[in-house]
Input
Amino acid sequence: MRTGFSDYQTALVTGASSGIGAATVRRLCAEGIEVHALGRDTERLAALSAETGCRTLAVDLNDLGVLTRLAASAEFDILVNNAGQSRRGTILEMAADDVDSLVDINLRAVLHLVRLIVPDMVRRGRGHVVNISSIAGHYAFGENATTFNSSVAYHATKAGIHSLSQQLRVDLYGTPVRVTEISPGRVATSIFKNQVAADNPDARFVGGFETLGADDIADAIAFAVGSPDRMNVAMLEIVPTFQVVGDLRFARRTELSGADNA
Ligand SMILES: NC(=O)c1ccc[n+]([C@@H]2O[C@H](COP(=O)([O-])OP(=O)(O)OC[C@H]3O[C@@H](n4cnc5c(N)ncnc54)[C@H](OP(=O)(O)O)[C@@H]3O)[C@@H](O)[C@H]2O)c1
Output
C-alpha cells in the first residue's frame, strides 16, 4: 500500500513566510518534499529557505497573471491554501478596501489556484489539496466581533473555503486527488498583530490565553497528507482545549435598539 508522503514529491504552500505556513514548510521539507514557499516578505522567505532548503516564491496572491504562470511552471502534488488575512470590526464599520482584501486573498486566490493547479493533478493521477479555513467559517461568534478576529467578511470567506472544499471533493469524485479542510481555532501567529491595542499587543488575542501553536496545525496537515491513499482526511476542526464555540443570545424587548423602540 502506497502512503501519501512516499508518493508526493512537490508542494506549493501559500502564506509560507510566517505562522502556520512557515511551520508547514518546515514539516513538509522534513518529510523530503520539495516545497515551493509563497509569500510577499522576501526576507522571511529567504530565512526559511536557508533553514529548510525550500524554494521561495515572492508573489502577491492578488496577481492572477503571476499565479497563472506559476501554475504552469511546475507540477505540484500538494497544494496548501494557507495564506490569509483578517480584519477587526463588523460590516457596519468596515472599509471597502478591507472587504475586498479579505475576499481577494482568503477566497478568490484560493479558487484560482485550485482552478489552475488541480486539473494537472487529475491528469497525473496524484494530488492533495489542503485548505485552511477557520472555526469562523463554521460558527458565528457570540463575543463582540470587534474584540475577536471575526469580521463578518472574514467569516464569509472562511465559510467559502469550507464550501469549496466540500464541492471540490464532489468534483474530484473518481480521481485519486484528495481534499482536506483544516479548521483551526486560535493559533498563536502574527495574524492578530494588525488588530490589537497598541498598549498590550498580544494579551487580548494570544498572550493571555492557552492557544495552539503553528506546529500543531502543521502536524495535522502532515497527518492528512501522510495518510494512506485509501484514506481522505476530509475535515479536521482543531481548537485549543480551553476554547469552545457555543452561544445563544436573546435580547429582552427592553434591550432592543432602533427606531421602533426609541
Ligand atoms: N492564527 C489563527 O488563530 C487562525 C485560526 C484559524 C484560521 N487561520 C488561518 O490560517 C491561515 C494562516 O494564518 P496565520 O495565522 O499563520 O497568519 P500569519 O502568520 O499572518 O500568516 C499569513 C500569511 O499569509 C500571507 N499573505 C497575506 N496576504 C498575502 C498576499 N496578498 N499575497 C501573498 N501572501 C499573503 C502572509 O505573507 P506575507 O506577509 O509575506 O505577505 C503570511 O505568510 C490563514 O488563512 C488564517 O485565516 C488562522
